[in-house]
């Protein structure tokens, strides 16, 4: 009888090191195929950012889907616990590097896109638990629940990642989104994970906020002038 032995898992301490370089061992451990960062620069009004442009960035990791081909009753937590924290670290290191650190970050959001051999729940497993969300909030020094999007698609699509303020999610000026094009991902057996952040609000935001809104109920339908 032939027996198969599994190589022991390697231990990594990523708590106080950067993953911007020398991340190949952890990439191999989680099935990471690629990682990239895209940055969008927007001119802003002087009153919003003291004349500095608003930066929006998305860090995207493409990993093998560890659950591709499994039944809908298959448990997801073991692989979620193993992979999601590493993805949070990889992606937030790149956001902080691109935007100037957590002090510069004012808004954030997340997304996951699963390939056609997976299910939406596989995408959610890597972003909707504390293994990802808590680490992303801590790294970017936020307190808000992370707004999100998730999808299932073939490679080559574009996806919009929503963002809002990292500590005051009801601050309407910071409701925004960043479009990310996934030119070569996800392959059918992959998941693309996206973490996004911005250094300011929407340019020229002017639709008011909860602090300035008057009370609105369905009674307003009685007084419309069209």
Kindly describe this structure.
By secondary structure, the chain is an alpha+beta fold. The chain has a single domain (30-202), classed as BB2672 (60s Ribosomal Protein L30, Chain: A, 2-Layer Sandwich). 23% of the residues lie in helices and 26% in strands. It contains 5 helices and 7 strands, in the order H-E-H-E-H-E-H-H-E-E-E-E. It has helices at residues 24-30, 46-49, 77-99, 120-125, 130-140, and strands at 32-42, 54-64, 107-114, 147-152, 158-165, 176-181, 190-198. Strands 1, 2, 3, 4, 5, 6 and 7 form a 7-stranded mixed beta sheet that branches. Helix 3 runs parallel beside helix 5. The longest helix is centred in the middle third of the chain and has 23 residues, at 77-99. It starts with 23 loop residues before the first helix and ends in a 28-residue tail after the last strand.
Topology:
Layout: H1 24-30, E1 32-42, H2 46-49, E2 54-64, H3 77-99, E3 107-114, H4 120-125, H5 130-140, E4 147-152, E5 158-165, E6 176-181, E7 190-198
Parallel strand pairs: 3-4
Antiparallel strand pairs: 1-2, 2-7, 3-5, 3-7, 5-6
How would you concisely characterize the structure shown here?
By secondary structure, the protein is of the alpha+beta class.
């Amino acid at each position: 009888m032939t027996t198969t032995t599994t190589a022991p898992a390697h231990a990594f301490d990523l708590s106080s090191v950067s993953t911007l370089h020398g991340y190949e061992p952890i990439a191999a451990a989680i099935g990471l195929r690629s990682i990239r960062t895209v940055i969008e620069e927007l001119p802003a009004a002087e009153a919003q950012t003291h004349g500095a442009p608003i930066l929006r960035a998305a860090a995207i990791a493409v990993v093998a889907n560890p659950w591709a081909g499994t039944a809908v009753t298959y448990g997801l937590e073991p692989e979620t616990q193993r992979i999601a924290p590493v993805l949070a670290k990889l992606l937030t290191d790149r956001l902080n590097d691109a935007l100037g650190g957590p002090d510069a970050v004012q808004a954030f959001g997340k997304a996951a896109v699963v390939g056609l051999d997976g299910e939406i729940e596989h995408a959610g497993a890597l972003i909707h638990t504390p293994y990802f969300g808590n680490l992303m909030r801590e790294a970017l020094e936020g307190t808000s629940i992370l707004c999100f999007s998730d999808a299932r698609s073939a490679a080559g699509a574009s996806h919009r990642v929503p963002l809002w303020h990292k500590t005051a999610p009801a601050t309407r000026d910071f409701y925004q989104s960043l479009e990310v094009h996934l030119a070569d991902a996800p392959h059918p057996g992959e998941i693309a994970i996206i973490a996004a952040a911005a250094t300011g609000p929407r340019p020229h935001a002017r639709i008011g906020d909860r602090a300035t809104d008057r009370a609105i109920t369905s009674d307003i339908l009685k007084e419309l002038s069209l």
